[in-house]
Amino acid sequence: PPRSTLFPYTTLFRSPTFETTSCDPVNPTCEDCCPHEGCDIVNGADHGFDFSARATCVCFLGDAAQKELKLTSGHDCAFVTGDYAVVKAGGGNDVVDVGGGKLGKVYGGDGEDVLTLRQSGENLGSQQLFAKVFGGAGDDTVHVKGSQVEVDAGGGDDAVDVRPADVAGSAFGVASTTQSENVRVFGGAGDRKSVV
Using an 8 Å Cβ cutoff, are 34 and 52 in contact? Predict the structure, then answer.
């Protein structure tokens, strides 16, 4: 059966923005933060949002508010902002970071993905709306920084890190004192390592 064990953050997780040594986690760029070589740098304004038929990898950088971004079946990167942004990573070992908005959704798909959600849902009193991360198959690393979030890590030996939005000294590089509330983490078959 799956197990949940707490480990020190420094020995367990690596942020997608730390895949390269020159990356600024607050202002990621494809050149500095995407560990995959030779990816086409794309954005929604010039290239649209569906790259699923492309043969070469992509690094998406930009706003996808109220859009669905589909990456290729290879190893891709996406650094996305916008309310209600949806990222479907597809196959491959993808690096996805969704921030700068609310109620985003990230679908990792197959592969050993590094998925970061820096958004929160909303508590409307009688109705709770959740930002969501779905890891999919593979040994994924999931970072959540926010409240009102649901994580379904999927199958595989996954690592899930839940941090308050804007905590001083966090791996996400922003300082504040906000707490993380109402975060739900679910796992499938495989070992699960969690830091909450």
Answer: no
> Ramachandran region of residue 18, left (φ > 0), alpha (ψ -120 to 50) or beta?
alpha
89-103: per-residue pLDDT in tens? 999 999 999 999 999
Give the torsion sign (CA, 127, 82, 14, 142). positive
Q: What phi and psi values does residue 27 have, to the nearest 5 degrees?
A: -130, 75
DSSP assignment string, 22-87: T--SSS--HHHH--STTPEEE-HHHH-SB-TT-SS-EEEEEE-TT-EEE--SSS-EEEEESTT-EE
Q: Find, among 19, 15, 34, the residue nearest to 74 by Cα.
A: 34
Collapsing DSSP states into helix, strand and coil, what is residue 160?
strand
- Chain centroid, CA 25 distance in Å: 13
One-letter amino acid of 80: V
Q: What is the pTM of this model?
A: 0.83
Report the distance separating Cα 87 and Cα 171, nearest Å: 22
87 Cβ neighbours under 8 A, 6+ residues apart: 64, 69, 71, 78, 80, 96, 98, 104, 105, 106, 107
* Model confidence pLDDT, tens digit, residues 147-189: 999 999 999 999 999 888 764 444 444 444 456 678 888 877 7
